[in-house]
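ok here's the first one, seq then C-alpha cells
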Amino acid sequence: MPTYSIQTLPHGSLVAIITPFDASGAINWSALERLIDWHVRSGTRGLVVAGTTGESSTLSMDEHAELLNRSVTHANGRIHVMAGVGANSTAEAVQLARMAHKAGAHSLLSVVPYYNKPVQEGLYRHFVEQADATPLPLVLYSVAGRTVVDFSVSTLQRLAQHPNIKGIKDASGDMVRALQLATALPADFVRYSGDDLTAAAMLGLGAHGIISVTANVAPAAVQAQCAAIAQGRLGQELPLVRELFELSQALFAESNPIPVKYLASLMGLCQNRLREPLVGAGPASSHALDQVFAKSALVADAAQAFAGEQSAAIV
C-alpha cells in the first residue's frame, strides 16, 4: 500500500481508468468496483476518474456526478481519486470542480478547453476561476492533439503561482517540452507524463509519475516501471520498459479508449462497450490486439492476477 498521504498528489502510476458499460450502454457499477479493487491491490497510486479514457465527453452531468461519488465511496480512502473536471465552458468546468469536491475527490484534472481555441489570457482566466472554486489541488492537462490550443510555458509559470494549481499532465510526447517544463516550473510542481509511449523518457527527465492508459491492462507493470526509474534502475529494467512500449503501441493504434477496451474485454475486465460516436476496434486493430493477448507475458500475468482475485472474492 502507498505510504504517502492520500491527500497529496501521488507519485508513480495513476490509471486513467476506463468506464465500464453494460450491454444496454449504462455504467456497469459492479465492474467498476472490481477494477478499483484490482488497482488498489496492484499498487496503482491513483485513479483518474471521468477523464478522456473514461469517455467523460459521453457522460451526462448526472452520470458524471454518480461516477465520482461511487468511485470515491468504493475506494474508501485506499487510493487517491483524481476527478476529471475538464470542459470548454469555464462555468461548466467550475461546476464540475465543485461537484468533484462535494463527492470527496482528492484532486482535480482539467483539460485545456477544446474547440473554441482560447488565447493564452483566456486559458489563464479559465483555470484560475476553476482553481478558485474549491480548495482541492488542480492538475492542468496539456493534450494539443485533442484540444489544438495548448499552454505556453509563460502561461504555465503564471498558473503555477496559484496556491491550488499543483501540477500538469503533459501528453505532448515532446522531450524538448518536457525539459522546458522541468526547468521552468517550480521543483514541487508535480509533472505527470500523459503519454505511455514516451513515459519512460519523461520519467527519466524527472517527471513524478504517469497518468496511464496502459495501466488499465497492466497496472503492476506500469507502477514497477515508475518505481524502477525513480530509483535509478532504468538500465536493469529495460526489458520491462520495452514490453510496456510494445503494449502501448498496440493500445494507441486507434483513438483511445477503443483499443484498451477491446483488450480489457479479452482479459475479462469488462465488456467491449463504448458510447457513440466511438465504435469498436476495426479488423486490423482487433487482430493486432488478439495477438497481444495471445503473446504478451505482461497481459497474461495481469489477466491471471485479475481472475485470481475474482475467484478469491467469490470464495
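and now the second one, same deal
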Amino acid sequence: MSASQPAVGLVGLGAMGMGMAQSLRRAGHAPHVFDLRREVAQDFARDGGTACETLAELGARCDVVVSVVVNAAQTESVLFGNDGDSGVAARMRPGSLFVMCSTVDPNWSVALEARLARLGILYLDAPISGGAAKAASGQITMMTAGTPEAYARAGGVLDAMAAKVYRLGDKAGAGSKVKIINQLLAGVHIAAAAEAMALGLREGVDPAALYEVITHSAGNSWMFENRMAHVLAGDYTPLSAVDIFVKDLGLVLDVARASKFPLPLSSTAHQMFMQASTAGFAREDDSAVIKIFPGITLP
C-alpha cells in the first residue's frame, strides 16, 4: 500500500486501544488487531478489520504497528515475545514502523529506537493522553518524537487516532519526557482532588454541592471534575487504575532522581497511591485514592 495509507495493526484493545482501533476504522483503515483476550479482537473485527491469532501474524501483515499496552515490559513482549522471536518484530519488514504509545522511562525508549534500527524497523516514541472517551472519538493527544522517515511511514495513521499530534524531536525520548511531566500533573491533581473531597466529607459538606461549587470556581481542575464524579457515583470501575499511578509517578521520581531534582508534591502523591494500592484498591479506578483518608463516609 502507499505511504499515505499503510496497512496498520494495533496491539492492545483496552480502554484506550479499543477506541484508537475504532478511530482507525472510521478513518477508512481496515486495522489488524491483536489482544490476549481473543474474543475482544474477534468482536472488534466483526464490524471491519482483521483479528490476528498471533503477534507474528500481525507483524507480517502490517506496515505500521501501534502498541497500546501498559508498560515497557509488555511492549517488549509485543515486540519480541517471551522467546525473543514470537513478537511482531520478527516478522515486520524492513522500513516498517513501530509506534509505542505506553508511558515508559525515556531512556528505555531511546534504547528501543536503537535496537529496532538494527533490525531495519522505524520507531516513534508516541505516548498518549486523553482517556477512553477521547480515544473512541479520535480526539486523544499524542506526544511524539522520531525520525523524519518514521513520520513519513506513519502517513495519516496518527491523525486518524488523535486530535493533536505533537512532534517534539527527531529522535526518541522527548515524547516520553513530556508524557512523564503530564503524568506528574495528572497524579498530583488526582491526589489533591481526593484530599479536597475527603476534607469536605469530614467537615460535613454535602459532596454534590461541593462538587458543583468547585467545578465552577477557580479551584477546579480537569481531574477534579472527572475523577470526583466517580466518587460521587460510588463507581470505581477502573478506567485508569490506582496502580497506573504507582507506576507512572514512580517513573517521574526515577527520572528526577537521576539528576537529583526534588519533586516534593510528586513524592507525596506517589505515597498516597502506594498506600491505596497496598490497602487493596490497586485495580480500582485511580479516584479510589480517596479511600486512604480515615473517618469519612464515601457516597
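notes on #2: The first strand starts at residue 8 and ends at 11. The chain has a mean pLDDT of 96.
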